[in-house]
Amino acid sequence: MSDTRITLAEARAYDRKRWLWPMGFGIIILVAAATVAGWLSGITVLMFAGPIMVYGIVPLLDFMIGKDSTNPPERVLDVLEDDPFYRYSTYIYVLVQLVLFIAVCVVVGTQPLTIWQWLGFVSTIGMLSGISINTAHELGHKNTAVESWLAKIALAPVAYGHFYVEHNFGHHKRVATPEDPASARLGESFWRFLPRTVIGSARSAWHIEKRRLARKGRPTWSLHNEVLQSWGMTAVLWIGLMAAFGVALLPFLIIQAVLGASLLEAVNYCEHYGLKRQKHDNGRYERCRPEHSWNNDHIVTNIFLFHLQRHSDHHAHPTRRYQSLRHFDEAPELPTGYAGMIVLAYMPWLWYRVMDHRVLAHYDGDIRLANLDPRNRDRLLAQYPPPAT
Amino acid sequence: MKKWQCIVCGFEYDEAEGMPDEGIEPGTKWEDIPDDWTCPDCGAPKDDFEMMEVD
Q1: Which of A88, A123, A224, B27 is deepest in the core (most CB within 10 A)?
Q2: Residue A285, SS3?
Q3: B-chain residues near A319 (CB < 8 A)
Q4: Does an H or E element contain A27, and which?
Q5: How many contacts does A have with B, using Cβ atoms within 8 A?
């Protein structure tokens, strides 16, 4: 091997976004600062910094700043992967998020607030909790004890710990198939996808743990159950906060968790909408390939979500760290970043107008190849008649 | 004969059984499977498999 220091410097030079990655936690500090400033100054609108940033500023910045589609070359991937700089950004993120969450709980539990101030806090923390599920996702795929634990800690405030189990052993296995609760179907509105994915994912996580524990000869209801472990962490955190700052904190805790989970599921909705792995004659689905995920290279959302939008490479290499994920020319591309797309997802008529023809084009006009919503199957087949064979 | 498990999704490859559907004969050792082979369920590469303990 040649001098590894040169290789590390070289690898780093290939990452054009290198010094932007710490903005992942930088943005949430700015949002929290704006919220607190809004509370102290009485400029209550500032307290809605969370939703304003997610739904307004980030999509706008994506539009203004544009894309980065550069890839690190294959030979530097291993070095880039081992560079601790990137890991530390995610570790710091989790700690910052936890401190902010507890600090806001202290304020909400002990300070007199107007209804608008309360709504400002709950919506901003709800957004931050949603984004922290993404950070937990990055960490939860890694095979180290530190990262597994940080993933679980990040999911505790938002009460979404079962995601850790379901995502790896459920979603990655069934991605882009009709059986996956976390893959949206063509013609399925976000508002119908939301209950299906929330209920389906929780149920799936429970079954996965039940099966795993049964294989090891352990009962489902045991301390080894990772779903129960993570829900237990949420219970301890929430009950502890209520014991310290009053039971009146409960609506705040519940609403921020609902907002956070919905935000994450809105992102999930965009990731595989309408895409489907075809079934072989032997009953197995074809392997997950780049064409089964929607990608996007807009810089701001990618920084914010740790390259989640390089989603095809994520499914091809789920344990690969965010800095090494690559853009594929052949993968389907969304018109803008996930942040802008979720705003569309909330308005199904607009979403269908933007997305359905893209799914159709992806399958060369043969809508039968898409993951069709059974309720809208007949309508879609009539609307986009399949080519005669 | 050993078993290998995908650390991403839990898929198990059993050397004794192989995967005849994919042209991998029963008895094919893990090291003889091509490097570009991927997990049939989730698409993870061979590197993401770990040898399983034999129960």
Answers
A1: A123
A2: strand
A3: 7-8, 44, 48
A4: helix A23-41
A5: 46
| A contact residues 309-328, partner B, Cβ 8 Å cutoff | 315-319
ipTM of the complex: 0.86
Has residue A295 been placed in a domain? yes
Does A382 fall in a domain? Answer: no
Give the global pTM: 0.94
Tens digits of pLDDT across chain A (389 residues): 445 555 788 888 889 899 999 999 999 999 999 999 999 999 999 999 999 999 999 999 999 999 999 999 888 888 999 999 999 999 999 999 999 999 999 999 999 999 999 999 999 999 999 999 999 999 999 989 999 999 999 999 999 999 999 999 999 999 999 999 999 999 999 999 999 999 999 999 999 999 999 988 999 999 999 999 999 999 999 999 999 999 999 999 999 999 999 999 999 999 999 999 999 988 899 999 999 999 999 999 999 999 999 999 999 999 999 999 999 999 999 999 999 999 999 999 999 999 999 999 999 999 999 999 999 999 999 999 999 86
Give chain A positions within 8 Å (CB) of B23: none
If DSSP codes are grouped into helix, strand and coil, which group holds residue A286? coil
Least CB–CB distance from A287: residue in B8, B10, B43 = B43
Name the residue range of residue A123's domain.
Answer: 8-351
Q: Single out the residue of A308, A303, A306, A313 nearest to residue A267, CA to CA.
A: A308
CATH of the domain spanning B1-50: 2.20.28.10
CB atoms near residue A207 (< 10 Å): 16
Q: Which residues on chain A are in Cβ contact (under 8 Å) with B38?
A: 287, 316
Domain count within chain A: 1
